[in-house]
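Quarterly update from the structural biology core.
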Amino acid sequence: MRKAEGMHEALTDGTVTLLPLGPGDFEAHYAGEDEELVRWLGGDPSTPEGLRDHLERCARWWSDGGPFHHFGIRVGDDLALAGTVEVQTGQYYLREGQANLAYGLYAQWRGRGLATRAVILACSYAAAIGCKEAVIRCEPANTRSAAVAARAGFAFLQRRSEPDGRVLDWYTLDLRD
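Predicted structure, tokenized:
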């Protein structure tokens, strides 16, 4: 992994580049959001106003140092936005030193190993900001997300009922190695 040259906060493995998500990503994100992405990332389809607000919050969190670190997953020489990955810290369901990762790819980018690459890069980022363990939480039926966790080296920890009533599978990865 190396920082992308000339880009603040960018991480790259030569195929995938992670850059902070922000207001400039509105059109690509809005166009890329589909039913599957909405379903697994737990929400309703974005409205233009809601998405603009979200992307502005992402930029503020970057400038404030968290607790959410939203990256755009970018590919190719033109750094096309292929999806997103978040490193979330300080959440009520996490222990001290844990980071939750949430990710999704737009339909045309799925099935190419990009999510796994993005998760590995996001783990490197989480370790660099002092996290000791990464967590991926996904619904048991979300087999694609579970497969990404496995390919990125995460181990199944538990299936648990969350306070909001959802049942989620937890996968963890020690970042101290």
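Residues 1-8 have pLDDT under 50 and may be disordered.
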